[in-house]
Amino acid sequence: MSRIVRCGLVQAVHELDGREAVEAHKRAAIEKHLRLIDDAASRGVQILCLQELFIGPYFPAEQDVRWYQAAEPVPDGPTIRVMADAARKHGMVLIVPVYEQEMAGVFYNTAAVIDADGAYLGKMRKVHIPHCHGEDEHSPFGFWEKFYFRPGNLGYPVFETRFAKIGVYICYDRHFPEGARLLGLHGAEIVFNPSATTSGHSDRIWKLEQPAHAVANGYFVGALNRVGREAPWNIGHFYGSSYFVDPIGEIVAEAAGADEEIVVGNLDLDRIDEIRAHWQFYRDRRPDTYGEIGADLP
């Protein structure tokens, strides 16, 4: 019998203008996503991933210390407690990307993983932190993440949930194959990549990189992106196009486009053994020859 796990990806619009109070953003986003989680549960979803920094707009579009107010401890903050209750209510695994405060003045772009019984399993902190302009290189708005986040320091953990072994690779991380390989070596069966990326910035490679990671590492990938334009910054159109891809690079399920929706796919985890029996990348890899990859450039 096939081992099938029903998974979901939320691509959602954040309606509030970025000039609203930080707490108003968090309250609206949490209320909306609780409704979306209920919807996913009604469709039989067992593992659901929310989008990067789901607790509001993509605020790194600007550099403003007021957004530090959006950060909270993980797992001891209010958002993770609310989401743990939702996971327990539905018997659903949740991947919850938030803004984490470790201590005063120290922040991370973090995804918490909550098991189907509401138990907190751990977190992944975004490792690679971008800092670049948006569509208009002369605009003060862009992807200014180094203003808000320290690089992650927890490595590439894999979490054994009720339904599957899962890893998380957050947005910009997906451009770096080294961590994607480590997630496979650590036993991931599904890797979720919650993102916030815009048209004119990454469209061409959105459906190249992550199928490549899936093939090279013999696991499923769930790639998700938010949707809409976010005022007042308008750094670009978040184009959605979320999808699941299998270990041979075939799309299992995908969004219709750039509208708000929950993408649901049935992932047959037995395909991992089947495909790895043919493509023996783990057997044939040569770590003894890769020493230079960890060295700094000259």
Describe the protein's architecture and organization.
The protein is an alpha/beta fold and 298 residues long. It has a single domain, classed as Carbon-nitrogen hydrolase (Nitrilase/N-carbamoyl-D-aminoacid amidohydrolase). 24% of the residues lie in helices and 27% in strands. It has helices at 22-42, 78-90, 177-185, 203-217, 270-278, 281-284; strands at 4-11, 47-49, 93-103, 106-114, 120-125, 131-133, 142-144, 158-160, 165-168, 190-195, 220-225, 227-228, 238-239, 243-245, 251-254, 261-268. The strands form four sheets. A six-stranded mixed β-sheet has the order 5-4-3-2-1-16. The protein has a six-stranded mixed β-sheet with strand order 8-9-10-11-14-15, covered by helices on one side. Helix 1 (22-42) packs parallel to helix 2. The longest helix has 21 residues, at 22-42. The chain is globular and about 55 Å long. It starts with a strand and ends in a 14-residue tail after the last helix. The model has no long low-confidence stretch (mean pLDDT 95).
Q: Multimeric state of these chains?
A: single chain
Shape: globular
Domains, number: 1
Could you tell me how far the N terminus lies from the C terminus, measured between alpha carbons in angstroms? 53 Å
Number of strands: 16
Low-confidence stretches: none
Order of helices and strands: EHEHEEEEEEEHEHEEEEEEHH
CATH architecture: 4-Layer Sandwich
Write down the CATH class: Alpha Beta
Rg is: 18 Å
Q: What number is the mean pLDDT?
A: 95
